[in-house]
Amino acid sequence: MAAHMLVQIPLLAVAGALAATGLPVPLKARLAAWNRRGVSGTLLAVIASSWWMVPRALDSALATPLMELTKFVTLPLLVGAPIALSWRDLGGIGRGFVLANVLPMWAVVGWLYAAAPVRVCNFYLVDQQVTAGVGLLSASVALAVVAGLLSFRVVAPLDQPRPAASSSGSRPSTP
Amino acid sequence: MGNAPWVRTAAASLVVCAAGGSLLWRGTDGFRALTSEQARRRAIAQAPRVLPVVALEDQDGRPFTLGAYRGRPTAVDFVYTQCQSICPLLSAGFQRLDRAEGSGRPDERLQLVSITFDPRDTPARLREYASHYQADGSTWRFARVGDTRELAPLLQAFGIVVIPDARGGFQHNAAVHVLDAQGRLARVLDADAPSAEVARAAAAARQ
To answer: How many domains does chain A have?
Structure first.
């Protein structure tokens, strides 16, 4: 369960994100017309990803091949790809807003999985449920720390080298 | 540029929220069933399930089927004799039920059936387990499936998922299953449901 929630699902989303960055530029531009400031793409990714946190959804992917196929299609296409196409356009405030909502949700879901007095998934062992919960909680804290370090410029983002070039007009340049 | 791009983005966002919201709503029965166990219980309560006719063998080696209980209030659970976790709780609950039902007319009396899914459980083992819970085999029987090929369809019909754990045992969704007068699976209650609640559900299922 921990492997599915913390490795398989994120990797499927990352696969979708990587595929989306390789889309031809004209197609990206046409999609961007429907996704100004990354709003609709982010909404899509948040809604689709929240489904795959529901214990019933995790069970269903093991119970029926159709739902397993749905998982393998929706995570790259409806979570990873839209986030990749939207993240930059969201801007600093938008990204902060998304993270400030999504990360606490992950933390609470993780905490529930770890602390629930009942077995929430019929297809997974109880100890796997606890591991998955602790893992999800830890991942959300780790991502929050990374996001904090990036937003307060303690470390430089990978795609933007430290010396502030005048390429992006939205960021205040330091003298 | 004008407002055109925002119109499209707003339209796309609306579609995403409406479609996504309705799929989440439907996928969780209106946020009332977030686990597959809740979904199973709701589905059974809404539409009683016809159970397959499966030849069972009790702790004394006597063959029977669940159909024999038609018309009598009946509760079924799934256990295995080596279980250290949830089965003792289920069996203690059935023991309380069996004792609570001691007085009362014989045909009104709640019948209990505990079915094992562990192929290692022989009638002798079931007999030993039954004596541990002071079940005399008249109102509370312990059974295994006669033909192991019929076990999977039976578990499937009840919605029981059995997965092996790392210690040579199993984990499974534990609950009390109440049959109705036609022998269909009508209600599913918590493993630790009070005796009175199970008796009430069994009486209601006969209406």
So the answer is: 1
